[in-house]
Amino acid sequence: MCCCGCSLGFGVNLILAVHLAIISFYVLASVFSIVYKRDGWEYSGSHTLEVCVAAACLAGLPIIMLAFWGAAKKVETHLRFYFVYLLLSVIIDSIFVYRTLLAAGPCERLAAGGAGLPPSDVPDGQAFVCGMSRFFGSAAAILVTASQLYAAFIVWSFCEYLADGRGADIGDLLNNSERAAKLKLKNSPYAGLLGYANNGYGSIFAAAAPPGIGGSTPIFGDGQQELEYPLPAR
């Protein structure tokens, strides 16, 4: 279970959808920023960094599509592959969040009267803003990192769930109903007549008939029986 009562399958599909939307946004932002030179689409101060982020996001598109298929068909290998990609994304995102919200926080960029001052020389009002900004920045960094780690834990849990052979749900009964019907006909006593026999010849009655006991002799010797009485002269 995940997200207060939802199934693991629903949680994995939700994570895949959100992750797909995020990386699609970064790809589009990089295209509009670098290729079309549109203002307002820059999300970093370096085009090199944006190209690297777009390349990583483009590499994740087929991985996420493969994970969607794996979640639908209960294929553990595809989800394991996506889990590795998700862990790498969490590590990279955590580094950027730390640099943006903590290492280069608002106190270092705080200005008083148009001139940059160190945090110790900032007036009282701006010192309060500096402290609150650091607090909310730290809280946001912890919340983002914890959310990403929880998403990775859900994907890992679903992989372990499939590895234990417990991935089937009530919807799989409908998906496999046609296959189950054919299997039932194949194991039916009339499979030979209906053309569902394993070897394609005869029927199940012929296959089940005993071959007999070897080395026996006929009761009446030559096997000829006389039904008339009194017996005719030979």
Provide a descriptive summary of the structure in words.
With 234 residues, the chain is mostly helical. It has 2 domains: 8-174, no CATH class; 176-208, no CATH class. Helix content is 65%, strand content 2%. The chain is built from 9 helices and 2 strands. The protein has helices spanning 8-35, 47-73, 76-103, 106-109, 124-163, 171-175, 177-186, 191-194, 204-208, and strands at residues 111-112, 115-116. It has a two-stranded antiparallel ribbon with strand order 1-2. A hairpin with a 2-residue loop joins strand 1 and strand 2. Helix 1 packs antiparallel against helix 2, helix 1 crosses helix 5 (124-163) and helix 2 (47-73) runs antiparallel to helix 3 (76-103). The longest helix has 40 residues, at 124-163. The radius of gyration is 36 Å and the shape is rod-shaped.
Overview in brief:
By secondary structure, the protein is mostly helical. The protein contains nine helices and two strands. The model is unreliable at 112-117 and 199-203 (pLDDT under 50).
Write the layout of secondary structure elements.
Blueprint: H1 8-35, H2 47-73, H3 76-103, H4 106-109, E1 111-112, E2 115-116, H5 124-163, H6 171-175, H7 177-186, H8 191-194, H9 204-208
Antiparallel strand pairs: 1-2
Keywords for this entry:
234 residues, single chain, two-stranded antiparallel ribbon, 2 strands, mainly alpha
